[in-house]
Structures are given as C-alpha cells and as structure tokens.
Amino acid sequence: MSTRAVPVDVDEHDGDATCWCCGNEFPEDQLLRLGTHPEAAVCLRCSVYLVRQARIRLDALHPSPAARVRQVMDVGRQTVVQHGGHRLPIVGAALRWVGDHLP
Fold first, then answer.
1. Residue range of the domain that includes 55
2. What φ, ψ does residue 21 adopt, rounded to 5°?
3. Are residue 83 and residue 97 in the same domain, yes or no?
4. What is the Cα–Cα distance from 56 to 31, expressed in whole angstroms?
5. pLDDT tens digits for 63-102?
6. Cβ distance 74 to 59 under 8 Å?
7. Strand 17-18 and strand 25-26: pairing?
8. Quick one: CA dihedral 82, 88, 91, 94, positive or negative?
9. Are residues 11 and 54 in the same domain?
10. pTM exceeding 0.70
11. Cα 58 from Cα 68, distance rounded (Å)
12. Same structural domain for residues 13 and 40?
C-alpha cells in the first residue's frame, strides 16, 4: 500500500477543488492527490502542516537525540505562535526562514 502523494494529471479534474484539510478552494496545480484515493485533495500549505504533525508522532514512537531536538523546536515554535511573535515583521520573517530550513 503506497502512502505517497502522487501528482494527478490536471486534465482529470476540471477547475478548482476543495482541500480536505482546510476546506478552501485551490487550482489543481496547488493540490496534492492522495495515492489510491484521487478524490482526496490537500493543498500545499496543509501538506506541510501534515508532514510536521506526522514527524511529531513518529518522533514520539521512535525517540532519538534528533527527535528530542525537533521536540524542543516544536515547543519553541508553539510558544512563539501563542504569543503572536510570528506576526512581528523581522521576527516573523526570521522564524519562517528557520522553519523552512530546519526539519
């Protein structure tokens, strides 16, 4: 059973489709279709969120030093978001850069 997201030929689906995660509509080129369930579409932003959630669960199942570092970073990320730090111009940009370059 394949759990990989696979691209779907754009001609197979007409117009915009709804993301199953956030419920917003997106053009087909901004969606991922899920393996043997092409009716399930997830937008790119939600797919990044889902990857982070999956990594958190995998780290909990398989503890390691790298998993511990990621857990500390996740707690830090959650704390910053709870206090609105991600909305500050310089801090928010720096945090997004770090988030894009770290696991």
1. 1-62
2. -90, -60
3. yes
4. 23
5. 999 999 888 888 888 888 898 888 888 888 888 787 777 6
6. no
7. antiparallel
8. positive
9. yes
10. no
11. 12
12. yes
